[in-house]
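User: Can you predict the 3D structure for this chain?
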Amino acid sequence: GALAAAGSAAYLADLTERPHLKPMRGTILGAQGGLVAAAYVVGPAIGGALTHFYGAQTAYCSVAALIGVCGAAYATLPETRPKEQSTSFRLAAAAKDWQHLLQDRRQQALFAANLALFMNYSAMVTVMPLHAYHLFAIGAGEIGALFSVGSAVGILLAPVIGTLSDRYGRTPLVAPFAVLCGIGCCGVAMSHSWEVFLAFYMMWSVGEAALAPLLSAYAADIAPKEHVGSAMSLSRQAGDLVSFVAPPLLGFMYDTSPGHAAMSLTSFMTILGAATFWNRTKRMRTG
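Assistant: Here is the predicted structure, written as structure tokens:
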């Protein structure tokens, strides 16, 4: 999954580097984000129906077949990597590329923002359902509906944000939406009524839905032409790192101190990520 995501991101970066597509990079990546969000809405419903009527094995086999079809379709796409570029892979060389990339203030800003975004993903899938259950005693169906609503926000918002980023740039939008994420997460943690909880959850979902296409487009913008794959995989690495560490950490925090502590930490880290991004990209905004 991680390899496919990194390869797909690099391919899109190459594709949207073409002169007739580059002005619409944000729109293209935003539309892709909307399709991914749509899959999160439709996928669970189809998977649940297959499991209910035909069993879990049928659902898993269907997913495996779809993945195979996608892999075969990807194999037919034209290659975007320059032919003269070396095809050999060395782990030490990849690590050296990442070290070189992280000396760039823009890559540091992107890394920090991705850490913040995936921290929010982790909190939303790990801690938020537990918190909602303990506060309001809602069941699996209601929690599933919350996730579907959040994904629906992504379907509607991601293409719009992509278009806005093409018009006004990525850097002015990233930090405000990261702050919105932080406020939404903190509000969910502190809520004591369902209406307030839902309002802050929607704010949180809007922030996440906006950040994902913005950061994807920004990563493609700043990727060096000779190291596009390394740059896009570095961007992905931030998410993988947080996805490995954050869920057990946040879950442990909630077990030992039920309440707002885990999501308050997420909110703080998100605001810190936004401040880091804003500071590291200051030169780009001021010219």
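The mean pLDDT is 82. Residues 25-54 form the longest helix (30 residues).
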